[in-house]
Amino acid sequence: xxxxRDLLVNSEQPLVRHYSPGEVRIGQTVYEHSLVIxxxxxxxxxxxxxxxxxxxxxxxxxxxxxxRPELILLGTGEKQCFLPREYxxxxxxxxxxxxxxxxxxxxxxxxxxxxxxxxxxxAILIR
Length: 127
Description:
Layout: E1 16-20, E2 23-26, E3 29-31, E4 35-38, E5 42-45, H1 56-60, E6 71-75, H2 85-93, E7 97-101, H3 103-115, E8 120-124
Parallel strand pairs: 6-7, 6-8
Antiparallel strand pairs: 1-2, 2-3, 4-5, 4-8
């Protein structure tokens, strides 16, 4: 699915141009692994490759992100899977919003949030 968004804050931001199961394109770079994307640091590899391999430590690591996100978009692969309560609790206690959706929806939503200039983070599981 090609994703296009015209309302970017600036051209250097990590815009998701394409998502399909097993592949994310940010700008001209194609990634075939899970990603964490932030406005300031761009995209970087994220260890869990699917929802089954997601651990609470992967979620708690977002609390160390500088600057701290106000919103986390979690793409859980082709199917929407909800996080257990104990995974959500540290983020809720830190007053960080969390939206859980498919990775395709998270990719589209990321571009909207990015265009709004929000301090957000997208965590996209590739499978």
